[in-house]
Amino acid sequence: MTQWLERHVPKVVLAPTFAAILLFVYGFIGWTAWVSFTRSKLMPRYEIEGVIQYTKLFASPRWDTAMNNLFIFGTLFIVISMILGLALAILLDQKIRTEGFLRTVYLYPMALSMIVTGTAWKWILNPGLGLQATVQGWGFENFQFDWLVNPDYAIYTVVMAGVWQSSGFVMALFLAGLRSVDGEIIKAAQVDGIPTPRIYSAIIIPSMAPIFLSAFIVLSHLAIKSFDLVIALTGGGPGYATDLPATYMYAMAFSRGDIGQAASSAMIMMMVVFAIVVPYLYSELRAKHD
Amino acid sequence: MTDATLISPRAGTRTTGQKVTRLALRYGLYALLFLFALYYLLPLFVMVSTSLKSLDEIRTGSLVALPREVTFEAWKTAWSGACTGIQCEGLKPYLWNSLLIAIPGVAISTIIGALNGYVFAQWRFRGANLMFALILFGCFIPFQVVLLPMARMLGLMGLAGSIPGLIFVHVVYGLGFTTLFFRNYYVTIPMELVRAAKIDGAGFFRIFWSIFLPISLPIIVVSVIWQFTQIWNDFLFGVSFSEAGTQPVTVALNNIVNSTTGVKAYNVDMAAAILAALPTLLVYVVAGKYFIRGLTAGSVKG
Amino acid sequence: MKFTSVFAASTAALMIATPVLAEPKAEVLHWWTSGGEAKSVAVLQQEFADRGGEWTDMPVAGGGGDAAMTALRARVLAGNAPTAVQLKGPAIQEWYEEGVLADISDVAEEQKWADVLPAAIAEHMKCEGHWCAAPVNVHRVDWIWANKEILDANGIEMPTTWDEFNAAAEKLQAAGITPLAHGGQAWQDATVFETVVLGLGGAEFYKAALVDLDNDALTSDTMKAVFDEMRVLRGYVDDNFSGRDWNLATAMVMNGEAAFQIMGDWAKGEFLAAGKVPGEDFLCGATPGKGFLYNVDSFAMFEVDGDDNKEGQAILSELIVGPSFQETFNLNKGSIPVRTDVSLEKFDMCAVKSSEDMIAAEEAGSLLPSYAHGMALRGAQSGAITDVVTAHFNSDMSSDEAVQMLSDAVANSM
């Protein structure tokens, strides 16, 4: 008995977590899948009615907008956060005297909830109240910055605020990566007279591949879950020009009492997640074989 | 610290012309960094300056200008006088609830995550990779999806509306991340160490306790920061799984800020928002240094 | 049968004999959390406490109750429903269909609610014939607020038709004043839309289009004219209206940056809070057209266990509709009492007008539920309409397209 326990202790330790994840993640995904085939309205019901919710979903222009926005927002948010994060990390790694202060400044937005920073952003971006009005007040009458109120550009303001919130975290990831690159190799390269930008592009950045992957996963998970950001900044507007799948789902489930519809949109979202995460997990697992 | 620097401050052997360029670059670098700092600080500036204005000034003046007259009235109201319902006691009473949820939530998910990570990194068994993948995928589930079934489960477990219920939810959905952090950290430690300890007769927990735990401070910091931020800032679970008396501070903040048909007191809103965020800000400022160190120490190496 | 009547009799007996064993209790879920609103609810708590009740407050603000509704669903699924919940319009009947609402007909009949409430409004409080909710107030939605100084300076009267409004707006625009202060949030777009539907189409049309969802009405020329007018109104709004909170739009009228705002009577609270006087600093009038769009707040009573909770529920229902709470609450809130027998002596001129118009509309059959505020339709349908309205208002969609989209969206939401 003791011996059995001794041998199986690792599995016993994992068992509760695994059971919890099976039930509370996969069980719930299964539940959502089931409900997405019903006509659930205010509360979940369980009589299967077929794919009607999916038909409705794909017929809805608002869902189209939401999916388009997810691609625009997701791509820009991830790419800009990464570039900005990497740039800040490299700049901050130049033996800057005020590094501690700057690092905290770049990082702090992650600590604030969007419930209220959203209001501050809304004011800043509003042409009549914020940046545009201020700069015009300085005498630059032609200065224009009205993305927030322009249906075609509003989604980019969501990107701005999103990048503001998350790029500091990415900066931290990259800074950590820069600090853990082997110093000997770099010294050798410097002795060989290789110019510094080249050292970065050829040696340091390629060696941080795993960090790009981690940053990508953290950012894509934030992009897909982005909800507070949109609600606080634009409320999905103008019109529903800045709706994202997460806000669409929430609106259907909780303000419109159309849980079946919400469940079907959730399933599509899960599939998007799946398409992004599975390749990552696959590469994670392959790395384990060496 | 890498020794490669784009613009080295020590340029002893170079010509004067090069020195000048270097110096200019160096100033340019600082200017650039502080310019970015402005972008990051702008919303905080708006929040702080608004919180120091009187309501009249907000109504009549520019929303993003500096206060003409500084008053701390709004802060006092936000702390102990703003109405969050029929009680007008400000945020004060709710901070306690949030602490009661966050501290055990962070502690439990970190401890379990550490043990899980230890198993995944050092005690591999058949199927461990698949299990890890499944747990990791759990990080990505949108929380809106789990609200309703979770409510039902909490009801069945008798935890509905209670603080233990909220702790439970946060632990369950935090485990994926904490497990990931610890696994990626422990995986850099050579397997030989465990093998040698086993030969010496040390068991599973003994090895964890005397070899792994002592070197875990950096990654514990990472896990604590991540989980504390997530739990403290959570609104969706807080509003759904609480009842009168167990509502966390984000729900109270929402009640102050998001009233629909009432008169809006923006100065109080902003002060309340900053107050509610102070614990997380504090954690970032104090532990930020260790955060980077913890990440450096291996957590991000895939 | 026998058992129930014995039970009913004993509850009735309990209610007469006040000193009961179980202390009445109520947990109340609502989204009135800001100063004035919260004070109004506190009045109810006080009255409840005076009757020996123990009130547990469960406030959840945000988005007109979205967050509160999220919490409510979680609570009901967990088998832990609150005693009373702020709910309104057809949502009450929707929850009833889920089998979770209690019957409060005993109290309602004893208090003769049917005699003091306007019939149209009373109907919202009933679930298959019995009473299941208690109404709190009547907000009028079809108000137009104006800055008196601006109107006087430009020689403009409060408009009584949309053509008059357009003419006035042109004049103001020529004078360099923003005619209409508006906040571009979906629900605010919908608020303006429904007043235009009422104004251009009349009560019958409003009912056909936004209550009965009659497809002929939705695709009619009148509806096209409504969208045309929305397009015209879009031209009277300043450039920065997107996402603006309604109270900031109110502030624009107050500060003389804009002349008019179309908004429910909660806007009055903003004016009053800034020390403005109705009739002197600002004017209130019904939006062009005949009718009265109401937005009635109410508390639905949920099925709860335990005599203490049931007792609390009965007392609460009685107090909510009671004249004293109706008066104090509505004075605080800017709305008018839902009872028609409450004296309006202490109310301001806007509230008195609102009450007179309500009674007149009731007689004329033009007392109508506001669709934009969830009184006329269920969430899925009203949401589908709002999607179209706000998409049209914020783009250059033609009225023909909008009408087609409207018809499709309504069909798709069924």
From TrEMBL, chain A:
Family per similarity comment: Belongs to the binding-protein-dependent transport system permease family.
Originating organism:
Aquimixticola soesokkakensis
Cell compartments where the protein resides = Cell membrane
Name the Pfam families for this protein.
BPD_transp_1 (PF00528)
List membrane-spanning regions. 12-34, 70-92, 104-124, 153-178, 199-224, 259-282
Topology versus the membrane, per the UniProt entry? Multi-pass membrane protein
Look up the record and give one Gene Ontology term from the biological process aspect: transmembrane transport
Which keywords does this Swiss-Prot/TrEMBL entry list?
Answer: Cell membrane, Membrane, Transmembrane, Transmembrane helix, Transport
Q: Does the keyword Secreted apply?
A: no
Instruction: Give the matching InterPro entries.
Output: ABC_transporter_permease, MetI-like, MetI-like_sf
Q: What is this protein called?
A: sn-glycerol-3-phosphate transport system permease protein UgpA
Q: Which residue numbers delimit the ABC transmembrane type-1 domain?
A: 67-280
Q: Which GO terms describe its cellular component?
A: plasma membrane
From TrEMBL, chain B:
The protein's matches in InterPro entries, at most eight in alphabetical order, are given as: MetI-like, MetI-like_sf
Indicate how the chain sits in the lipid bilayer.
Multi-pass membrane protein
Q: Quote a single Gene Ontology cellular component term.
A: plasma membrane
GO terms, biological process: transmembrane transport
Q: Where in the cell is it found?
A: Cell membrane
Please name the Pfam families in this protein's record: BPD_transp_1
Determine the domain of life of the protein's source: Bacteria
Protein name stated in the entry: L-arabinose transport system permease protein AraQ
List the source organism: Aquimixticola soesokkakensis
UniProt lists the gene as araQ_3
UniProtKB/TrEMBL annotation, chain C:
Keyword DNA damage present in the record's keywords: the answer is no
Q: Pfam families under this entry?
A: SBP_bac_1 (PF01547)
Domain of life, source organism: Bacteria
Where does the record locate the signal sequence feature? 1-22
Q: What is its main location?
A: periplasm
Spell out the GO cellular component terms annotated for this protein, sorted alphabetically and separated by semicolons.
periplasmic space
What function does this protein fulfil? Part of a binding-protein-dependent transport system for a sugar.
Which PANTHER family does the entry link to? ARABINOSE-BINDING PROTEIN-RELATED, BINDING PROTEIN COMPONENT OF ABC SUGAR TRANSPORTER-RELATED
What is the protein's name according to its record? Answer: Probable sugar-binding periplasmic protein
